User: Fold these one by one.
Assistant:
Number 1:
Amino acid sequence: MAWETVIGLEVHIQLATQSKIFSTAPTAYGAEPNTQASAVDIALPGVLPVINGQVIRMATLFGLAIDADIAPKSVFARKHYFYPDLPKGYQISQFELPIVADGHLDIVLPDGTEKRVGITRAHLEEDAGKSLHEAFDRDTGIDLNRAGTPLVECVSEPDMRSAAEAVAYARKLHALVQYLGICDGNMQEGSFRVDANVSVRPGGSTEFGTRTETKNVNSFRFLEKAIEFEVERQIDVLESGGTIVQETRLYDPDADETRSMRSKEEAHDYRYFPDPDLLPVVIDEEFVAAARADLPELPDAKRERFMAEYALGREDAAALTNSRALANYFEATVAAVGGDAATHGKPAANWIMGDLSGALNREGLTIAQSPVSAEQLGGLIARVADNTISGKIGKDVFEALFKGEGESADAIIEAKGLKQITDSGEIEGFVDQVIADNPDQVEQYREGKTKVIGFLVGQVMKASKGKANPKEVNQMMAAKLAE
Amino acid sequence: MSDERSIRQLAGDLAAKKLSAVELTDHFLKRIAAHDERLNTLISHSESTARERAAAIDAGTDAGTPLAGVPIAHKDIFCTRGVRTSCGSRMLDNFVAPYDATVVERLAAAGTVSLGKTNMDEFAMGSSNETSFYGAVRNPWHTDYVPGGSSGGSAAAVAAGLVPAATGSDTGGSIRQPAAFCGVTGIKPTYGRVSRYGMIAFASSLDQGGCFARSAEDCAAVLQAMAGFDERDSTSVERAVPDYSAALDAQGDDFLKGMKVGLPKEYFAEGLDDASRQVINAAIAEFEARGAEIVEITLPHTDLAVSTYYVLAPAEASSNLARFDGVRYGYRCDNPVDLEDLYTRSRGEGFGREVQRRIMVGAYVLSAGYYDAYYLKAQKTRRLIARDFSDAFDKVDLIAAPVTQAPAFKLGEKLDDPVSMYLNDVYTLPASLAGLPGMSVPAGFVDGLPVGLQLLAPWFEESRLLGAAHAYQQSTDWHSKRPAGFE
């Protein structure tokens, strides 16, 4: 039987605020345990939460970016369960009235078609602390630094039909929140956490199968693998006559499998009710309008503009606009080249996605950490464009810039004497010498084996240490051989 | 005797150096030493820090503050830095707060000297002060009787003259009822008037800090220091606080003249003890004699208050008390075998029976399948009760009523009958549910036990409440009576 996969994703987006959602303690990652937990975070008797206004602004930006409704009134609710890293015995979240509802994200599928994924809701909540089991003999340590860190939980519709679609959606969301500057996107540190709700059903069926929720997926690659594993497991169970149990499963990247964590029978009754310590969040049109004015250009709009302004193909434009940092680097590079943006767009894209990306990957660096600045790269592209150096020499200059061997392309060209030889007298000298030194090849050419010209030109380039303008060498060689 | 002076007189004499803060503090510490073994009004004593603080005030540290050198006691629900804050519970018997509640901070900033922390029903759950882990408080008017609750320790301490004023908190009547039972003046301000930061939560949407003192005038002086917006409490209201004492001074003797005072007929119906009714009627006659216009009003949803309250308050309590889990502070059971055992025994052993009962009720009314029928329904009836009051205040300026159906009952009398205990709050719960300001003013005695007159005003009209009570206290002396043995 043909099975159809149905996937919905729940993504926890950690908001990049300075302080926590309900206290003034800082949110920085990696501090000594319990040094960033205030009286409110550890839930001392008598303390009260106070909402951090930044959080409301960020959630509003997010809602606008996914074309969702921003609730004029949303309500914080208490979600109760006992766990040592949950200091109050409840998590402050939003339940019946979330701040953001009914949005969507358009993704590009591997075959190039577009697909719209619905976003049911996105609500604000506080993170819990961490339980540390390793460092203590038979005991568990509690680190409450993370307790109270602001999160947006974004819940999609079950609109995705393959692991690849789920990854495309997650990547798009990941890029978007970084564009908005509301999340640092660091998946290893847990700033962007994806849970996958997966079910399968017979092809053509309109009813959903029983789903499982897979947690602990901290990279896109693992997301893809976890979903693929889970789909296969569910199909296996169903095809061998079994039934799927609604449960929470954990992905184990070492074993590349998902394992049962808890079943629905063990699920909590969270006893949600509106938090009486917090007033409803009221957002007026003025606030929304101000947030809208603050919205940066979003990835889709930027991609369209790059195609028009820089004469780029859809694929190049999409790749460059994947991250705001990369897009900014690209634009700064073209600006540094100077002149016509449409002319220099494609070479700049090639340099950035070719040599630069390769070098950065090799060194494990991000675009923000690039040793070659956009100004330096733009300067290099300008010298290739005006024939000061050839493309081939350009690659050498790029490597020199990457290694920090010079302040600019011009400085390196000057210092290493890489300036292209365009003086026809000088080129003629090299050509005559090569013709004189290679009588056999000249003879072959004149007998009609014209391909041998490539060898002769190569000899000229070699003799000029690559600096002779290849176009001029070609023309002159052809002319001389025809004499 | 120095404690016959009003708080304003004390503050004036202290500022004028006619009286030293050390002298005054010692006077009250001596009274505590002499009487509190019998009354049990204090859970924690701060003798040495009180003397140090008084000496510092005499040396000029708090010069210019309105209450410099005035002794006070805080209900043990308010966190006090460096002092045990038990909330009357074994759960917090070992808890020393690392910070001051806003109320404590503000009263200290106003120059008061804290003598200790007063006894209370465990987590403020009770109407007799008998649920305290530290034992019952005795009513100074008759020590076989309860002082009321939950702020029983504060009310009894003021009544016995152990301290001129004390803080309290009122969730369903926890200031007004003990004030009535102990014959002192108590005010519960409008919800949002006094910060809840640092006041250990029982039912967050109802809890409100207030105070006890001999007279309305004294309450005005203490409330002045407590009230006002606090950015650490999102439910506190950003609204200017009037000068209460100046308002009392300015109003003169004819404050009640022409004031429309409503008597809600539901509060005078069956259930009100006859002798208490006579005391209340006499008090109302005094209001009339001073020019008030008395009208009968109706608050038709009054009979829903007890059931509404006993759904909402336990619901919030079950949530607020979830943090007491034996993990970070407070009571932890011995040798837990696993996490479940740690939770179950720490909470089972740390909380008393009444607290556990309310947690169970609260968890039940919030659970899936019952939420709509109980919690949501109670929210709706709460709005009906509040609307009764806003309708009534369209017609009258003030509401007068009894605080309780009868004077104080005997220790142990209702301990095993929770429903009868809950019905004690039938006249105080509606105003709590509506968030209104209310007072209890001493109005007379029945068989030697005090009876309180309840006054209610529209939201944020504490000045009107205090003014009416003050005018009444100008021509009556019920508030200055002393229990025998505590003169």
Number 2:
Amino acid sequence: MQHLRAIGQTGEVRRATAEDVHDRITMIWEKIIDEKRADVKTLGERLEVRKM
Amino acid sequence: RNWDDEEDEGDDVDDTDDIDPDAEYAAWKLRELKRIKREREAIEEREKEIEEIERRKNLTEEERK
Amino acid sequence: MAHHRADEKRFMDERGSSGPLAPNGLNPATIMEKPVRERIIDSYFWKDQCFAVNEADIINRVVDHVNFIGGTYGDAQRPSPFLCLAFKLLQLAPSDDILREYLEFGGEKFKYLRALALFYIRLTRQAKDVYKMLEPYLEDRRKLKRRTRIGTSLTFMDQFADDLLTKDRVCATTLWKMPKRELLEDLDVLEPRVSPLGDIEDLLESDPEVVEGNNG
């Protein structure tokens, strides 16, 4: 029940604080940066492969 | 998925920033100058209106004599 | 603690007058026009993406789904994700602290989040706060895609902020009539705005054609 509530299944949503909002922004931003980095890396690997 | 169909509808508008920072700055500057000009004109317009009201008020006072 | 479902029902209810009013005294449930609200509530995006969403979750929705500003678009007059999320904000009524996060920390990274916050602030805040919170972004020249019934076009954050400050209708929503800036200056509620370009007299002297030569 506690868990269901936390994920909103009971129809209740916990209000977010400004701090929660700040942290979420950081989280999403870092995820995007990581994904970009991963893309660059795979591109690098592909180039490596092409060189061989 | 009817909100995710952006890609196929002849989407020729590119909103990527910093492609040409100098041109983007120049375009912004022009928009900002137009805003300032518009604000100035609004103020001048208002001052004129106030003058006109004053003028009419004085006229009627003259006529009353 | 908020009972979202119950709140939502109450919010959708015309009689929503029982709920708290926005800082500008308007009822958030009726700020958007009825046909628009109905379109939003009927839309798939609303049902699928806007349920059980709080002030932090909304950022994920913006980042994942908002890539243009607009009200309703296309022949079907479909409500944009931007408009649906603005409606969600009307329901959530985020505090000024949260709005500042959307505008500044978040808005620097995600431009459509800033645009959404600007729109929401214009709908719900008092005039002096609308001017104070929106005007700094007349300096933000980032591009925004805008979609209307006729098609897609390019606009800019500064242009969007200016539209919100000067136009009657933006994104399928009639904006409440704010007192003019000059009036609030006369009442000493606001200081005159200083453009990031500096003093206009100096500008005119240095480069008159720039101002005169482009009348739109």
